[in-house]
């Protein structure tokens, strides 16, 4: 990864965690997941594709919209 590249992690309102940029995502044993340069992680805990988002948050009406403190 070029040091000038910036990884962005966005907490979507009522939804997933969106990761954009070249990162390595590892499981608890240290093995890498196969991912692209943009992917979404589950935040509601109900996805059938954990750790990835499958859109279940919409079906269960997950609500959470945290804001960064100033």
UniProtKB/TrEMBL annotation:
Ranges of residues in domain Iron-binding zinc finger CDGSH type: 18-63
Residues forming coiled coils: none
InterPro entries hit by this protein: FeS-contain_CDGSH-typ (IPR018967), MitoNEET_CISD (IPR042216)
Nucleotide-binding listed as a keyword: no
Presence of the UniProt keyword S-adenosyl-L-methionine in the record: no
A UniProt-annotated Pfam family: zf-CDGSH
Alphabetized UniProt keyword annotations: 2Fe-2S, Iron, Iron-sulfur, Metal-binding
Protein name: CDGSH iron-sulfur domain-containing protein
Organism, as annotated: Niallia oryzisoli
């Amino acid at each position: 990864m070029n040091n000038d590249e910036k990884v962005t992690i966005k907490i979507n309102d009522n939804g997933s965690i969106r990761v954009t940029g070249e990162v390595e995502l590892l499981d608890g044993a240290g093995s890498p997941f196969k991912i692209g340069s943009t992917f979404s992680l589950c935040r509601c805990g109900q996805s059938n594709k954990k750790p990835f988002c499958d859109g279940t948050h919409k079906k269960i009406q997950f609500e959470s919209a945290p804001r960064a403190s100033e």
